[in-house]
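Ex. 9. Protein: IF-2 domain-containing protein.
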Amino acid sequence: MYSGIRIGPVVKRDVMKASTMLEHENQYATILAFDVKVERDAQELADNLGVKVFQADIIYHLFDKFMAYREEIKQRKRDEFKSIAVFPCKLKILPQFVFNSRDPIVMGVIVEAGIVKEGTPITVPSKEVSECFAPVQ
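Predicted structure tokens for IF-2 domain-containing protein:
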């Protein structure tokens, strides 16, 4: 990874250095400019390359902007992968609420740990083998 510190206005060279992070992790291809100017050609290059430039005269505002950007990226990743993510859970079957013991199995459960969402695959572990049932609907 690359990081750098420089005093003075943000120039094209700074943007080129920051753009090396685009190969690894986009969220780190950023420039935090505290109480300095960003030259117009450097801003244009940053926009073209996809480098994010944050500029503020108050350090706390700069920090807040950067943290909001990181949170936005995290949320985008969550949204992107939520359809394929499997949330682990532990369920307890309520015997008095077993309505259908054949396909489709319909029963009441208590969630003892984790999160159950629609589409979560359910398995019943035993000493010999783990049997996988259909996803939760």
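Check your answer against this statement. The first strand starts at residue 30 and ends at 34.
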